[in-house]
Every structure is written in structure tokens, then in C-alpha cells.
Fold this sequence. Notes:
Blueprint: H1 2-136, H2 140-188, E1 199-203, H3 208-214, H4 219-228, E2 231-233, E3 240-244, H5 248-264, H6 269-298, H7 305-313, E4 318-319, E5 322-323, H8 324-341, H9 346-355, H10 360-366, H11 370-380, H12 385-393, H13 403-417, H14 426-441, E6 446-452, E7 457-462, H15 469-486, E8 494-499
Parallel strand pairs: 7-8
Antiparallel strand pairs: 1-3, 2-3, 4-5, 6-7
Helix pairs in contact: 2-8, 2-15, 4-6, 5-6, 6-7, 8-9, 8-13, 9-12, 9-13, 10-11, 11-12, 12-13
Amino acid sequence: xxxxxxxxxxxxxxxxxxxxxxxxxxxxxxxxxxxxxxxxxxxxxxxxxxxxxxxxxxxxxxxxxxxxxxxxxxxxxxxxxxxxxxxxxxxxxxxxxxxxxxxxxxxxxxxxxxxxxxxxxxxxxxxxxxxxxxxxxxxxxxxxxxxxxxxxxxxxxxxxxxxxxxxxxxxxxxxxxxxxxxxxxxxxxxxxxxxxxxxxxxxxxxxxxxxxxxxxxxxxxxxxxxxxxxxxxxxxxxxxxxxxxxxxxxxxxxxxxxxxxxxxxxxxxxxxxxxxxxxxxxxxxxxxxxxxxxxxxxxxxxxxxxxxxxxxxxxxxxxxxxxxxxxxxxxxxxxxxxxxxxxxxxxxxxxxxxxxxxxxxxxxxxxxxxxxxxxxxxxxxxxxxxxxxxxxxxxxxxxxxxxxxxxxxxxxxxxxxxxxxxxxxxxxxxxxxxxxxxxxxxxxxxxxxxxxxxxxxxxxxxxxxxxxxxxxxxxxxxxxxxxxxxxxxxxxxxxxxxxxxxxxxxxx
Length: 508
């Protein structure tokens, strides 16, 4: 019974397993069919997309092929145009080469003809010399010299005519440019019209101080004059004494010493020496500070201390009544403007202008030429070669070697020559005028010569029958050159040669 039940259960379980397997098999078959259909659908989609991409790729490749064909056509056309251009240029070069070859042959022929003409000329000259020897009883050398003299006379007239023509053109262009530069420089700078006096006045509180300055038996005034190196003039003018001297630096120190002595009230030789020493130190420091301030204002700092002191000291130096420092600053600024107009270095021109008269600060103590002293100073303190050249060139010791040096020379002449800038000693003025007239009158065919315009122009009257226009040009150059070498003068002197023909008849 139990075995029957077990058997029945086992059969039931087996039957269940079989049924389950059949059900799973059916389900798996359906699922597989579904997956298979889904995979086929996806494969179809992928195949469609691939076909589309392939089509697009073919279209893109076609476009690129078309673009490449267009580019190739453009490049080919460009290459063809360049080839045509090159062929044209080659043809032109070939033609030019042919012309050059023809011209070269032409020149060779001309050279041969010239050589032949030279031979013929020599033969004719020799023949003429022989004839002249026979006719005039002249030797070959004498006849040759005669011919050369005649040729030289004719050549001089031709040369003078050519010189006159081109000198006129160069003068016109040069004057235009020079006038423009000078106008630019002078309109940007306004100088002072001032002359340095030879005396200083010291105001006294009372006339009693005059006696105290003189001292017992004149010992105070003697000590002052001996120590200060000036003349002290005490006259009847109330309330003032006069300090006189050519050295502005010593005169300024003397004036300050006397003012301090008057303020202090103690006036005796020992006190004079003490005050003089104190004032001298103050002035040394002051001239250094003045020089330094000038360099800073002009943008030229730094500079060697000794040169700075000497720049400050120029304030106490005058030339023909013109203050040396004022003149120096004027030249520096004018030179800077001129150099800028001519394309030069403004700062270097300004530095050269500032130092061009630096030697004048030492001439009263050491004597000699301020040009040599200034050049030696600048050489010692390693200044630029152009600065040294400007120092030499502004008085004609050297030729200006740069735009900056030339600007300094022009600015120096402009500053010295403007009206009111300087006083000139009458004796030196009359001497210069006389020298100018003598130089002109010493020339052949000159009838009269007059120095006019304060000695800045020499008017020369020549014999019109014995000298022509071209020779007058050469004569003016000759006179100007001699004046440059023999006469010392500021700025420039105009040489005006006048040739005049007058026809005079009388009605009777």
C-alpha cells in the first residue's frame, strides 16, 4: 500500500517535471522567436543607416573631387599666367641685352674715334708748334707755354661761369633751409638784451660808514683792495660806495664782503679776512649749486663736478659786455633747436653748446685761449668728441665734423651778433673795418672799397671795363677767403662786389 502511494507520488512528480519542461521549452521557443525578430529589425535599421552613411560619404567625396578639380584649374591658370609673365620678362631682358650690346659697340666705336681725334689733335698741336717755331722764332717749350696760357684763360672764364651758375642754385637752396632753421630756432627762444657793467654799488646806512671802511690811515680800504682784488671808490655821492673791477666773480665777492662788514659793524683787517674766507666758501658752494640746477633743468645731469662749478662760475664772466652764462645758455638752446631741425642729437648739441665757452671761466686766472682751455678740460673729464670738436670749431680752429658742431657754431654767431647782445671796443672795431677795406683794395681792378653796416658788409667797386661778371664772382670769393684767414670777427661779413657800366654823353 505504501509502496503504491510512493510510486504514485513519484509518477506524479515525474509527470510534473515533464510538464514543466514542456512549458519552459515552449516559453523559450517564443522568447527566441521574439529575440530573433528584434535582432533582424535592428540589423535592418543598421543596414539602412550604413547605406545612408555610405551614400553621404560618396557625396562628400564627390564634392571634394570637384573642389580639388577647381583648385587645380586655378593653380594651373596661375602657373600659366606666371609662365607668360616670365616669358615676357625674358623677352624684355633679351631686348635690353641686345640694346646694351649695341650701345657697348657704339661706345667702343666712339672711344676709337676719340682716340683717333686725340692722335689728330696731338699731330695738329705738334704741327702748329713747329709752324710757330718757324714763324715766331719760338722754341717748342715757349710755344707750348703760350698755348697753355691761352687755354687756361678761356677755361677760367668757362669755370667761373659754371661756378657762378651752380653757386647761385646752391645758395638759393642753402639760404631757404638756413633761414627756415634760424627762424625755427629764434622764434622758439627769446633772449635778453643786457650788458654787464664794470661797477657795483654798495648802499651804506650812513655816511659815517665811509670813514670806517677807509679806516685809520686808510688801512681798512687797503686791506679790502689787496685781499679782494678790486678798486673801491669812495666819493661825495651820499650813502653809496663803488666797487670797480673787470673780474665779475671777484667783484661779486667783494660786494658781498663789504655788505656783511657794514651789517656787522666791526671793520678791521682781521675781520675782513675772516668775512672774505666765509664768503668765498659760500660762493664756491653757490656756483656749484647754480651749475647743478642748470644741468638738471636742461636734462644734462650728471657731469663732472669741476665742469659743474665752472658752468656756475660763467655767471661771473662777461665778453664784450655780454654775460657768459646767459650767452652759453642761449647757444645751448638755439643749438638744440637747430640740431633737431637738421636731424641731429638735440641733447648732444645742447651739451656742446653749454660747454663751448667753458674755458672762459678760467681765462681770467690762467690766461691763454679759452678754446684751448675748454678743449683740454673736456678732454680731461672724458666729454664726447663732438663736444670737443664744437669747442674748436666755433672759433674756426677746426672744421665742424657733425650736425651738432655746426649747430653750435651757428648758434654762437647768432647769439653774439643779435642787436644789443654785446658791446664792442671802439678801437678793435675801427681796426677791423680798416683791415677789411685794405684787403679789398689790395686786389687787382678794385677802385673803391667801403666797410658798411657796422663792419658786417664790405662793398667793393671794380672797374667794369677790365673785369666781367664771372670774374667778379671769383673776386668776391677770393676776398671772403682772405678775410676769413686774416680778420677776427663775430658772425659773418658779406662781401658785395659791384661792377657797373655807365654810359655818359653830353648834349651840346
